[in-house]
Amino acid sequence: MNDAPVPARYYPPSGDAHGHPALLRWEGGHLLVAPEDSDQLRISAASLRAEARGFNHSQWAIAWPGEGGEHLLIVADAAIAPLRATAPALFATGTHAQRKTHRRFGLGVTALILLPLLLIAGIFLAVEPLADRVVEHIPPSIEKQIGEAVLARTRLDSKLIEQGPALDALQLIGKRLARPGEDLRFYLAERPDINAFAAPGGVVVVYSGLMKQADSAEDVAGVLAHEIAHVELRHSLRQIVRSAGLRVIVSALFGDYGALGSWGAQLGELKFSRDAEREADARGLQRLAEAHIDPQGMLRFFETLARSENGAAAAVPTVFSTHPATAERIERLREALASHPAGTPQPIPVDWQAVRQALPDTRP
Amino acid sequence: MAMDVVDYEIFGNEMQYVEVELDPGEAAVGEAGVMMYMQDGIQMDTIFGDGSAQQSGLFGKLLGAGKRLLTGESLFTTIYHNEGSGKRRVAFAAPYPGKIVPVDLSTIGGTLICQKDSFLAAAKGVSLGIAFQKKIGVGLFGGEGFIMQKLDGDGMAFIHAGGTLLEKTLAPGETLRVDTGCVVAFQPSVDFDIQYAGKIKTALFGGEGLFFATLTGPGKVWLQSLPLSRMADRIVMASRVVQGGGGKESTSLLGGIGLGSLLGDDD
To answer: Is residue B167 part of a domain?
Structure first.
């Protein structure tokens, strides 16, 4: 193939900007240049210089000094192969330059793709310790105010049960679980869901559906111990600060893409709650032991929950979807109970059947 | 691969259209949405990709279409065949004020690099590809972005430029400094680079930006006097609707955050 002439454009030193089509080939140690409309030239290879140039170095400029100035040939990269095969040394520098351009571009593109990903990962990693720092500096008075705000919202959503044996039983269990000096307030909301939550400032809200579903006071004590652990560890405060922080950062970075912001915040919450729930389970168990309450109640309640999850998937309380799978939690609790046998528990003096009957029948 | 030889005529002054004459059996490709009129006997056929013979097989077609998507054009091109017995005409109109540039690819070595979005129509067989600008600095500051369009073949191609057109042949080593955004097309032998404007005062108050684009010969370059983006900016500035300020489009640093969302999801 080395004999096939290579198409090129020839620019003589006269300053003719248009150039002339020409054909090139090697003959011995010389380059034969045959312009379409003038005499053939014969140039010694030693006087030639070649460099890659043009758009993305996709063209070759072959130049040599002659009478009247510099002569120039432009050859497309796609056609250069036969010339390069015979005199690789002439084209070595240019080939190197071409490779460098491609490599740099590849690096640039990779960086452009990786940079935003790294930024996002950085935000997620930085928000947690930052939020925890902030939480350390929030005084209890503000925590209490947030708790009041959450409570006020709960009052809007659902009716709070203000009196009756169920509330009395809840207060009694709560009092046993509270440590001296702890300011905890327990509220009973009239809602059919099996759910309970802890707000900052020691506010614990239990849904009537949960009380109705529980088999004994010890079951409810288990759930309460778990929620009090959330308060103790300031989990909900942390969660509020984290998701607010994520929102601020994400919207400052990406503008008003609201969906992106809440999506990111939710992702953060999901991971956060899984770890937090495990922590609260462990702390809750400890608290039950301190209060001499039978810790089997917590386990029983989870088993009840697991049954209702299997029975009717639709009835699963939404709050538990961010919790670790119930089966996994049961397994964990079993292990913890086996390794730390409880002392002799003192039963909670409550007539549980009466409590259940006193609750309005709101099962979904 | 033989390209179809296309006769053409350009009409109009500042808002032009090109009328292409097709012999029986000949065909032209047009960018989707630019056809103005066609005579009887011309069949329209919308295809995926650009209709050049290089794109055989499903994968090739998908690749071609994906490339077109990158350059901001539609996934489909339309082919206009002359199925009649005599010569028939089809016309393509430019989408904004400017000039239509007829380029005979065979006279310039077969390849033309042009600004994305500038393709209007071509003889069937011209392949429409993309060429990444691989110099990072030029891609960022050269005014044409990283994605350029590459036309390959040896037939006629029609590209479109804004305002008045300058077609210039640069001698070897001859350099032209151009305002970024004004480069429409050039031959691949032309070095397209950027040059720092040099003086901070000029850069800030001269209104030309921090960089010039530099074009170094040999080779042909086509420049436009009015990039569409510049005209669009002026139109938007002149529009009373926007002068009111604010509105829905404003994205402030703390745009979407209110106290409500801070306390919005605490349960």
So the answer is: yes
Residue A180 is predicted with a pLDDT of 84
ipTM of the shown complex: 0.72
CB pairs under 8 A between A and B: 101
Q: In whole angstroms, how far apart are CA B209 and each of A169, A186, A348, B134, B193?
A: 75, 65, 79, 22, 15
A227 given a catalytic annotation: yes
Residue B116 in domain: yes
φ/ψ bin of A43: left (φ > 0), alpha (ψ from -120 to 50), beta (otherwise)? beta
For residue B218, say if its preceding peptide bond is cis, omega within 30 degrees of 0.
Answer: yes
User: Quick one: residue A202, left, alpha or beta (phi over 0 = left, psi -120 to 50 = alpha)?
Assistant: left
In this structure, what CATH number is given to the domain that contains residue B147? 3.60.160.10
What was the pLDDT predicted at B253?
A: 42
Q: Are B251 and A255 in contact (CB < 8 Å)? A: yes
Tell me if chain B has a CB within 8 Å of the CB of A15: yes
Residues of B in contact with A104 (CB under 8 A): 134, 136
On chain B, the residues whose CB falls within 8 A of the CB of A252 are 253-254
Q: Is residue B1 part of a domain?
A: no
A18/B174 touch (CB, cutoff 8 Å), yes or no = no
Number of domains in chain B: 1
CB contact under 8 A, A74 and B111: no
Q: Does some domain include residue B22?
A: yes
With an 8 Å Cβ cutoff, is A17 touching chain B?
A: yes
pLDDT < 70: residue spans in chain A = 1-3, 254-273, 308-325, 340-343, 362-364
CATH number of A6-91: 2.30.29.30
From A61, A101, A199, residue closest to B135, measured CB to CB: A101
The Cα of A193 is separated from the nearest Cα of chain B by a number of Å equal to 14
- Range(s) of the domain holding residue B46: 7-243
Nearest CA in chain A to B110: A76
Residues of chain A with CATH 2.30.29.30: 6-91
Measured distance CA(B43)–CA(A206) in Å, rounded: 73
- Catalytic pick from A143, A218, A227, A277? A227
Task: Evaluate whether B88 touches B21 at the Cβ level (below 8 Å).
Answer: yes
pLDDT average, residue stretch B219-246: 82
Minimum Cα–Cα distance from A53: chain B residue: B191
